[in-house]
Amino acid sequence: MHATIASTTTRPARTFRWRVVDIVVASVVAVASGVIFWAWGIAWTPISAPVTAALPGLQGILNGPWLFAGVLGALIIRKPGAAIFTELVAAVVSALLGTQWGLTTLLSGLVQGLGAEIVFALFLYANWRLYVALIAGAGAGLAESVLDLIYSYPGAKPEFAIIYTISTTISGILFAGLGSWLIVQALAKTGALSRFAAGRSASARV
């Protein structure tokens, strides 16, 4: 007769329910991101003018700093809705601080967050590796480029639309995808994310 011994290596079941700490940290990330959004909005006009003059549509390469909040929030919280929540709240903060685009910033935040959220959902909120973050950044950039071409650049020439979409998507990959992933890795090494799976998984690789 042999006794059955329960395995102690079984992984705890994943839960998609938001904890209080999830809401608090996502909100802090969103507020900090919103301040960055607002500051970048001030710097964007003088920087984008010569870029646009050099090659119309290439100004999309400067959109990345507005795309990172949703990817960053999702990589930390790892729960459904994190990308939309973080990006949208960041847009609200930016609008309240006085962005030049006013309340239309909220629409951008929703669309950008949704672009990233769809990617994480396609991976069933179970894969948080670098390549998924890069795809999510691309998703945010692609979603924003479509919105901008409809709302800000209606009737744009095909060559402009192609350049703008490609440059915005690349910017999303670099700033939102790679940038957010690197930030999470850096935070995890400090122990700041010890209450999150993002922090524990990074520590396990050390």
Automatic annotation (TrEMBL):
Question: Does the UniProt entry include the keyword Transmembrane helix?
Answer: yes
> Has the keyword Ribosomal protein been applied to this entry?
no
Cite the entry's keywords alphabetically.
Answer: Membrane, Transmembrane, Transmembrane helix
- Spans traversing the lipid bilayer: 20-40, 60-77, 84-103, 109-126, 133-154, 160-184
Give the matching InterPro entries. ABC_thiamin-permease_prd
Which Pfam families does this chain map to?
ABC_cobalt (PF09819)
Q: What is this protein called?
A: ECF transporter S component
Q: Which organism is it from?
A: Leifsonia tongyongensis
